[in-house]
Amino acid sequence: MDEQPRVYIFVLKRLAGWTHYTHSRDMQELWLKIISAGEIRLFNVYNKLGQWGGLDMVKGVILPVSKQRHTLLIISYLVVGDFNLHHPAWGGDMACEDPRVDDVIELMDSADLDLWLEPGTKTRMGYNSNTSIDLVLALRVLEERLISCDISLENHTDSDHLPIKTIIDVETEVVEEVRRRLWKKMDTEKFLKFVSANLPDVANLLLDPTPTPTLIDQKVNFLLETVQQGIQVLTPLAKPSKWARFGWTDECSEAIKESWRLFRFWRDSKHDSFQSNDIFNEKYW
């Protein structure tokens, strides 16, 4: 892809059974294998304001899928993203109707898609007004697996778009956990004694002038096996918390804290800029 993508899909490392496809910089797709229930296809879309590339891409992919769904091992599909289109169906009774917004309505009818966000839910915070332009569309039969779909302020960072959390009840495959060793806590002295005690005399490790490949493999494997046994006995396994985040630092926490502080001030005051003062610091820290 030559241009910078405008949509991303992040997948948990422990999640298995998925495949990612890039249709364009404005549309990506994730196939997720569901245990005993086929697959779910997730489409993440960006439709640029005043342009229709993202919308046309969605129609070109979703409509053929909806027509062939009965012949495919697919449980359902979801379409999420920033459509940059206003309509009372999702924006509430006072929302306007943008050009080509009927294409989305027709797509929902043709592909049997339901809107999961409550109509009128504001997804983007503007200076003068809040709007509903981010959508979560899903096949109607998937609604029985829906647990919740709503704005999630606890996951908000510094975007003018509010995060949407969608939870569905499905069972997925997981990657087998590989536990790491705490190498700094290895008892080096005992390890060396263990290896020395379990290795044969040096004379027995020497090779003939013209050793066979099989003999070389046997000697090397014996050395490796002895070392691995010493590691297993004398190097403890790490026991990370399920909430541990690799690479996370205090600087990351401070950056999020500051971002939240500024967001709360902007949300309450709708000011583009401000100057620090005692009132601001007292209220928003």
What does this structure look like?
By secondary structure, the chain is of the alpha+beta class. It folds into 3 domains: 18-168, Deoxyribonuclease I, Chain A (4-Layer Sandwich), CATH 3.60.10.10; 183-234; 250-284, no CATH class. 33% of the residues lie in helices and 19% in strands. The chain contains 8 helices and 10 strands. The protein has a 6-stranded mixed beta sheet. It has a two-stranded antiparallel ribbon with strand order 6-7. α1 (53-68) links the parallel β3 and β4. The longest helix is centred in the last third of the chain and has 22 residues, at 213-234. The protein is elongated. The model is unreliable at 272-282 (pLDDT under 50).
Name the descriptors.
33% helix; 10 strands; single chain; Deoxyribonuclease I, Chain A; alpha+beta; 285 residues
